[in-house]
Amino acid sequence: MNEMRFFSPDPAVRKISTELYNLVKDYPILSPHGHVEAQIFAENKPFPDPAQLIIVPDHYVFRMLYSQGIDMLEMGVPTIDGVSTEKDSRKIWQKFADHFYLFAGTPTGLWLDHEFREVFGIEEKLTGSNAMNVYDAIQVCLEQPAYLPRTLFEQFKIEVLSTTNGASDPLSDHQIIKQSGWTGRVIPCFRPDDVTNLNIKNWLAHISRLSEITSTNVHNYKTFIQALEKQRAHFKSLGATSTDHGVNNAYTKELSVEQADQIFQRALQGKGEQGDAERFTAHMLMEMARMSIEDGLVMQLHPGSFRNHNQMVFERFGADKGADMPVRMEFTRNLHALLNKFGNHPAFTLIVFTLDESTYSRELAPLAGHYPAMRIGPSWWFFDSIQGMIYHRQKILETANVYNTVGFIDDTRAYPSIPARHDLSRRVDCDYLANLVARHIIDMEDAERMARALAYDLSKKTYKL
Amino acid sequence: MNEMRFFSPDPAVRKISTELYNLVKDYPILSPHGHVEAQIFAENKPFPDPAQLIIVPDHYVFRMLYSQGIDMLEMGVPTIDGVSTEKDSRKIWQKFADHFYLFAGTPTGLWLDHEFREVFGIEEKLTGSNAMNVYDAIQVCLEQPAYLPRTLFEQFKIEVLSTTNGASDPLSDHQIIKQSGWTGRVIPCFRPDDVTNLNIKNWLAHISRLSEITSTNVHNYKTFIQALEKQRAHFKSLGATSTDHGVNNAYTKELSVEQADQIFQRALQGKGEQGDAERFTAHMLMEMARMSIEDGLVMQLHPGSFRNHNQMVFERFGADKGADMPVRMEFTRNLHALLNKFGNHPAFTLIVFTLDESTYSRELAPLAGHYPAMRIGPSWWFFDSIQGMIYHRQKILETANVYNTVGFIDDTRAYPSIPARHDLSRRVDCDYLANLVARHIIDMEDAERMARALAYDLSKKTYKL
Amino acid sequence: MNEMRFFSPDPAVRKISTELYNLVKDYPILSPHGHVEAQIFAENKPFPDPAQLIIVPDHYVFRMLYSQGIDMLEMGVPTIDGVSTEKDSRKIWQKFADHFYLFAGTPTGLWLDHEFREVFGIEEKLTGSNAMNVYDAIQVCLEQPAYLPRTLFEQFKIEVLSTTNGASDPLSDHQIIKQSGWTGRVIPCFRPDDVTNLNIKNWLAHISRLSEITSTNVHNYKTFIQALEKQRAHFKSLGATSTDHGVNNAYTKELSVEQADQIFQRALQGKGEQGDAERFTAHMLMEMARMSIEDGLVMQLHPGSFRNHNQMVFERFGADKGADMPVRMEFTRNLHALLNKFGNHPAFTLIVFTLDESTYSRELAPLAGHYPAMRIGPSWWFFDSIQGMIYHRQKILETANVYNTVGFIDDTRAYPSIPARHDLSRRVDCDYLANLVARHIIDMEDAERMARALAYDLSKKTYKL
Predict the structure, then answer these.
(1) CATH: 3.40.228.10, 3.40.50.80, 3.20.20.140, 1.20.58.1190. Which one for B11-46+147-462?
(2) For residues A26 and A248, what is the distance between their CA atoms, to the nearest angstrom?
(3) What is the largest CA-CA distance in chain A?
(4) Whole-angstrom Cα distance, residue C294 to residue B415?
(5) Does B367 touch chain C (CB under 8 A)?
(6) C47-147 adopts what CATH topology?
(7) Which of B84, B216, C221, C378 has its CA 20 to 30 A from that of C119?
(8) Is residue C1 predicted with pLDDT exceeding 90?
(9) Gap from C457 CA to chain A (nearest CA, Å)
(10) Could you tell me how many CB contacts below 8 A there are between chain B and chain C?
(11) 3-state class of A306 per DSSP?
(12) Rounded Cα distance, B41 and B25, in Å
């Protein structure tokens, strides 16, 4: 792990990169959007073992292995169809180590390198030969109190960590954490896709759960809205500052209350018509924006993933198994209704993410460079990478500047990778800015302001942390 | 303002960049497509004050401020709905200076830095603290004869400046300039969107004006064409060498005279049908190409902007207020009809611009690298920027070479920024070529030819200047 | 021809680039997909003259000249409409040399520079003045036995060269080569577009030829499939390891045998309906994947070219004359059916190419980074260029790594340019990797493995050579 890693080779640039990086490297971590479970902090139990911590739950890891012909059953991924999967964590780890070269140059590889070194103190590069030694070394760590989830939270200097929770989540773990007296700030984020997307599997069951949790008989559109408002308030009471919406596309369009109710009734009766789900989602985004202005929760949009593309994998292993695939996006026309109604409102914040890099310069930067309510999320998912970040800056900064973005935030299930992700982004951003300084495009004063903004200030402010 | 600005940090590259830049930096400026008004040269009066010159008319400036929550009323943008707007230019300037950091690294910021320094002799970086000093210094300049529009024209070494004018524009200011004896070459460009786009607001009024100005009773398609031909001749008599077409998309398709007439008649009677406007525009592009071959005017296509995306801004402030947003474009299929009919004709020149960078390598470069009539316009609008230019070269040069582009031309309303824009592009292009030389991809002889082509030769030749 | 050509200017990077390049520069050439004719090896006759070898058959060359107004008739391109074309090879060569500056910085220019120098020993840069000297020098070479096709094959160190052949090709030249005792490995690739695309000109004639060559009366869908299977076996017996499919788009969808037969019957009777061709192609891709699993031929997909865009050129000169234009592509939805049915199968390999660079990071890398059957082809056609390769790596490596690509393969009709193409790609790839090493993103061990993979190992393995 070279101290100059990820910086430009040019010595003049590297000097500036280092100077900027030194300014921001020790900032606390803000993680206002992620998928670590609150349960691990509620329970604060030791992590089971290296394979169960690092490989089995991380679809970034096993999708790459699968792409090269290594069965997910060999990697211990749990099945839902009853087929037996590998239980021996050492076998899983050995297989992983044998193929660790596949991750060279990938974000996962870089995060793991950092994690092995900085979190677990492993000095050697992981290979098939040293696999068991590395396993043992990590195992020893995991059994120590210093590696309990809450202790790591403090060691990682996490200031805020947000989980992501369905509309009908009771947030019991967040309540346990709150009551425990532990001061780590773990907050929820309200993500109601399971009830706003009429096409979701078991939609009716989700509605029932929502009824139950809110003590509201959700039997029409009006009561549905009441239940959602109630849950948003509940989330807010446990620290939530934002909502999130994982939609197929960014289409927004308001329906009349009557139209919305008709669609909702049809869905309740299992008589949905062609186009109902798309129109309902488009309307609910409008409604969520309306609620955001009222309750102050920041609204996030994560559109454009074709979920569970591989039917066989979905049937055997379930959702979130590395088979979600991006599709082309459109924002200028699709966000027209929402931005026209709410985009000029000073109390509204809409953070837009994309998996379609061609929209950065064509649509997102021009829109965010005009509408006061809109901000651009960081390079997301596959694009949470060195090249992904550089491209994001190249395509957005000149039109929208960094100040219409939210800086870096991670989006991960892999808890011990969080410091690695923030360190990488701070390095890449500082080097990007250093190149601008070296080319006399910005001066050092502006570079420093931007470096701080990207590392901390922007997410602090935009997410109201 | 460092002499090495915008060049690569590598000393070996920088040496070549400097050598190439020294070859082209003093070339006269060709500006065959812009939005400066001829009126300022006809009247040749002093510019009112710094805010009215630099901020109020420039939507690049106030859109960025608006995106960060600064009301356009505070920036003095004139309203059309009667709401009162800031009149105190010093207050406007102070607000602008307070937020000048928002422009760091943006093209607007770089142009303004150059303009402050080179045009107005300001040595300091603009801040909230020195705002009034800078204001005063510029004000002193503006009151001197050296800062009259015509004097600046010569000081800027502008060889040709083209304005952009609607189909029914009488071009009185151009006539005044011509008759004044002043030798500055200010020419019009024929942009008939107001009459070829049937959906435009007050289309009938534009047709009436066209009738009047051409002394032609435009009552059917035939007389419409006659009037257009007459106006093209009028434009040509005042120096025009080109036309321009700001269309929603690049769709081209010929109609029969009967079909065109039916659509035109329906429009005259206010009985337009679904699809009429799109089909008529597609046909008129064919017709404009036909006329171009006959009268020799070069045809420009500027497609793909969703105009007036923000309804509130449009209603309060009118058009061209920073709320025009790019949409995805398609050229291969859409230009098929036009290129098949006219693209092989030696007397035809079609210059295509885009706001969708994904079309550069996929569509524009292959098309321009084959059809003799087609040329690619420079990176336009949001993409008239350092990264925008580099990307344009990266995506186009290998397939179409620089010789199928038109080199750099600006596209601005901000008169005193013109030298800054050309200087920036010359620097960026020379540095791009220097990198190719340093990597032994081209030799110095080719680099010099290309540098001259991009800075001057290509626009001179393509626009028939 | 500088030894450091195409490497980064930074001395530290250049040192690593050189080290990596030295590892791979002498590897044999694998060319498993190209358009050189087997006939030249069957006959092994001297090439006629420089113009007939280098200009007349290469649409990369004459399309660029045509784009700048030089008629293809002047370049000696053969016509099919009876109009006479230039026959004097010296005149053609002179014209070409006069405009050779148009190729500066283009891949064609770089390949030609390499070819002139390394294959023909020309030291000077080609210009209008030395045109005839260069012509003479090449002519002298061509008359020597060292320049016979088979001798060059060995001198070029080609390990395998694949031609591309229609479904009904008897492969007589491949048989002649086999029987000749010459050990050069020239193999065919099965490309059945002429019979799977119902819209192709003279489709019925192609079906007749297929009937004849397979001694199968192709009168319905069943016999069509039988004939194809028979021809695949024939291709395989002459060394084929792959098939190729040049489709309009990547749409895949299975039909029932009855549906497929109905469409096929309509086509036989000349009564095709709207949508028949698209549905039949989508189905045949499924069928081809099925056959691939059975016979082991690797399946290649080359979608997204709008063929013969210029009707005038098509009518006068025929197909493949530089007027094929890319269109936007979609893979996530279009490949869903095919990847779901076959993408998890260990015996299946699908190599996907694209002319739409916006799909690299959004669709191809995520898909290939999951499905074990899928690999990404190299940057193709217009993108077989320095910038094209760099962009390909930037957009794909982080998500799919090099190991889900097939490394470099050329795709050319220009036989003597083959070594130039492989040398260029090896240089660009090594420099790309060197930059990663210099930035401490990968270490030297990984860089070496990747360099070998991209230059040789991946195509060897993926194409089963």
Answers:
(1) 3.20.20.140
(2) 37
(3) 67
(4) 69
(5) yes
(6) uronate isomerase, domain 2, chain A (1.10.2020)
(7) C378
(8) no
(9) 15
(10) 127
(11) strand
(12) 25
* CATH superfamily for domain A46-147: uronate isomerase, domain 2, chain A (1.10.2020.10)
**Average pLDDT rounded to a whole number, residues C202-206:** 96
A368 CB near a chain B CB, below 8 Å?
Answer: yes
- Coil, helix or strand for B348? coil
Residue A39 falls in which region: left (phi positive, over 0), alpha (psi -120 to 50) or beta: alpha
Closest by Cβ to B441, choosing from C110, C355, C388: C110
- Give kind and range of the element (H or E) at residue C161: strand C158-162
For residue C382, the surrounding DSSP H or E stretch is none
Chain C residues 296-315 with CB within 8 Å of chain B? 306, 309-313
Assess C15–B contact: CB distance below 8 Å, yes or no: no
Q: Are residues B443 and C358, on separate chains, in Cβ contact within 8 Å?
A: no
Type of residue found at C286? M
pLDDT of residue B185: 98
C 115-174: CB under 8 A from B: 125
Cβ–Cβ contact B180 with A under 8 A: no
Record the tokens describing residue A446, joined without a space: 């502006």
Q: Is A366 left (phi over 0), alpha (psi -120 to 50) or beta?
A: alpha
User: What is the pLDDT, as a whole number, of residue A239?
Assistant: 98
Is residue A188 within 8 Å of A171, Cβ to Cβ? yes
CATH fold of C11-46+157-462, please? Answer: TIM Barrel (3.20.20)
Distance (Å, whole) CA A371 – CA A403: 13
Residues C323-371: tens digit of each pLDDT: 999 999 999 999 999 999 999 999 999 999 999 999 999 999 999 999 9
Residues C79-93: tens digit of each pLDDT: 999 999 999 999 999
**Domain covering B47-146: architecture:** Orthogonal Bundle (1.10)
DSSP string for residues in C234-254: HHHHTT--EEEE--SS-----
Name every chain A residue with its beta carbon within 8 A of the beta carbon of B7: 439
Which of 3.20.20.140, 3.90.226.10, 3.30.428.10, 3.40.50.2300 would CATH assign to domain A11-45+156-462?
3.20.20.140
pTM over 0.90: yes
Smallest CA–CA distance from A99 into chain C, residue: C403
Asked if C352 has any chain A CB less than 8 Å from its own CB, the reply is no
pLDDT along chain B (465 residues), means of 10: 96 98 98 97 98 96 98 97 97 98 98 98 97 98 98 98 97 98 97 97 96 97 98 98 98 98 97 97 98 98 97 96 97 98 98 98 98 98 98 98 98 96 98 98 98 98 98
Three-class secondary structure of residue A248 per DSSP: coil
Return the closest-CA partner of residue B279 out of B249, B308, B317.
Answer: B249
Instruction: Verify whether the Cβ–Cβ distance B382 to A361 is below 8 Å.
Output: yes
CB atoms within 10 A of CB B172: 11
Of A446, A437, A374, residue with least CA distance to A15: A437
Is the Cβ–Cβ distance between A324 and A307 less than 8 Å? yes
Question: Residue ranges of the domains in chain C?
Answer: 11-46+157-462, 47-147
Residue B279, Cβ neighbours under 10 Å: how many?
17
